[in-house]
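Chain and conformation:
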Amino acid sequence: MGAEALIVGIAGRRGSGKSTMARRVLERCHRVLVWDAMGEHSWCPNRFSSLPGLERFMAWADGQAAFAARYVPEQGDLVEEFEAVSELVFDYGRVVLGIEEVPMLCTPSALPGEFDRLVRLGRHQRVSLVWTAQRMVEVARRLTAATDYFVLFSHTEPRDLDGIAQRCSSQVAGQVARLPQHGWLVWDAVQGKTVELNGLVRDLVRVSRGVSQPYVVTRHVTSQRLQASDV
């Protein structure tokens, strides 16, 4: 695939291994920010729980070829906080944003404004998304419709399989229903076929590389490397 950004969805029941899969995909990318609502991604350095701290980090990271950070919300309105993070990500661009448990941030019929902008226009800013959900039917249709790759773990509930059939195909839903407990498959929604996980990872790693360009100061902090203790 020759896209400048990708959207990857990972769907599986609790305990299926979807968070482990998200890590497997994200930790190979060059420029990564994880919305870690459950505080599970301890592999990712530079933990932030305040928007000013994250903004200072992103200003520094804007000039880096590689970085990794995670934002762990600790209080307040999750959707409102994620909207602020989404706006920041869109402004800076050139990042892979991991989003754990995306149904906490949307409804099946709608995305909040800044999140919606990321889905619709983020590719122009080279923003890729990797989202997880327990159930496909709980994810906003706009997001699933824009998703390039799906990593689907075993599902058995008829409603969940119907959701997979609607977005992928009835054949894929049938394959998912026959997977072992921790089994998974990768569906390329653009080409309409199952593919190897390595191909997905290669594509995501490729688009995660920052473009070569002169470094332009866009925020008030530009050179300091911030650790979690700086928040």
